[in-house]
Amino acid sequence: MLKVLHGADFHLDAPFRALPPEKAAQRREEQRDLLLRLADTVREQGVELVLLAGDLLDSEQIYGETAQLLARALGSMGVPVFLAPGNHDFWSPRSPYARIQWPENVHIFHTAQAEAVPLPRLGCTVYGAAFTAPARADRVLEGFRAEGEGLRLMVLHGSTEPTDRYGPVPAADIAASGLDYLALGHVHTASGLNRTGDTWWAYPGCPEGRGFDETGDKGVYCLEIDKGQVRETFLPLCRRRYVEKEADLAGRPAAEVLDALLPREESPDCWRVTLTGERGEEEPDLRALEAMAKSRCYSLTLRDRTRLRRALWDRAQEDTLTGLFLRAMAKRRDQARDETQQTAVEEAVRFGLAALEHREDPK
């Protein structure tokens, strides 16, 4: 069994535009720290080979300290490291990949066509290809067939959507590739292991979220690969998660609902809370609420999707189908034995009014 670490989509030196400048700079520093955690993981897990499937950098603009730490961290792993540039960090003579002095254990693929690097000591051949422009619509694996000795592995940035303009690798090409494992990058959500034909493949997702389209734990895959079988372990590496929640006011004060939802002690995560449900006449003061709760998480964004509480029975005297419905339901409410039954009747009225008024939302 060959032990392999598969990572992708680090997007180092991302701008983090949604955060204040000082926190954006802090997040970039934390991304650099991620490289050290990655190197520690390689050593602690006994990894023999590292595959990095592109978009390691967010753009060709990279801070000097990031470039230095990247080369040092990859070199400290002490095992072969293969990197396939993606659409954000595509290879060109001006790219950081062409300017950085890389350690001997690091191999950067720099051609659009797949190339092979045999590793006899590990009993495998590693294939890879690079983006050489911000997009590529050609099918990288079209007509490709791995013929190397031992395990046949490939690292590639691309999309399994056949018509995608970012290196499409459709299922038929994967099945015909002759690969034992295809390490993909581009999709920022971990896919789990997949098998197409005799080829296993996966996206590890990004190891550190950058926005609320990248929620939850983020990390890399540690794989054990042999002929015909792959075992995967997801290793979370992120310093902070992006957490998205909804808070239904249900007529209660927004401050009370938010206080109950947020963690009691300061969270290292970035939170976005959407206030929903019915409220009184006064709209929630988002700025005041954020100030009240700012010590409870690293960052907090609030959105107001509440609705003014409607009087359920206002149209009961109308000479309409709605009025007839409300009068009938009012009798049921008056006959209810307890508050629980009254609440059930009111809920039924909300759904009934939504149907009569052709609304999707019963509230």
CATH-defined topology of the largest domain: Purple Acid Phosphatase, chain A, domain 2
* Order of adjacent strands in the largest pleated sheet: 4-3-2-1-11-12
Question: From the 3D coordinates, which CATH architecture of the largest domain would you assign?
Answer: 4-Layer Sandwich
Structurally, the number of domains stands at 3
Low-confidence runs (pLDDT<50, min 5 residues)?
none
Span of the ends, CA to CA: 57 Å
Topology:
Layout: E1 2-7, H1 21-44, E2 49-52, H2 64-76, E3 81-83, H3 96-99, E4 106-108, E5 115-119, E6 124-128, E7 151-157, H4 171-175, E8 181-185, E9 194-196, E10 199-202, E11 219-226, E12 229-236, E13 242-248, H5 254-261, E14 267-276, E15 278-279, H6 286-293, E16 297-304, E17 307-308, H7 321-335, H8 339-356
Parallel strand pairs: 1-2, 2-3, 3-4, 6-7, 7-8, 8-10, 13-14, 14-16, 15-17
Antiparallel strand pairs: 1-11, 5-6, 9-10, 11-12
What features would you describe in this structure?
The chain is of the alpha/beta class. The protein has three domains: 2-236, Metallo-dependent phosphatases (Purple Acid Phosphatase, chain A, domain 2); 242-308; 312-363, no CATH class. It is built from eight helices and 17 strands. The protein has helices at residues 21-44, 64-76, 96-99, 171-175, 254-261, 286-293, 321-335, 339-356, and strands at 2-7, 49-52, 81-83, 106-108, 115-119, 124-128, 151-157, 181-185, 194-196, 199-202, 219-226, 229-236, 242-248, 267-276, 278-279, 297-304, 307-308. The strands form four sheets. The protein has a six-stranded mixed beta sheet, with no helix packed on it. Strands 5-6-7-8-10-9 form a six-stranded mixed beta sheet. A three-stranded parallel beta sheet has the order 13-14-16. Helix 1 links the parallel strand 1 and strand 2 (49-52). Helix 1 (21-44) packs parallel to helix 2 and helix 7 (321-335) packs antiparallel against helix 8. 35% of the residues are buried. The mean pLDDT is 92.
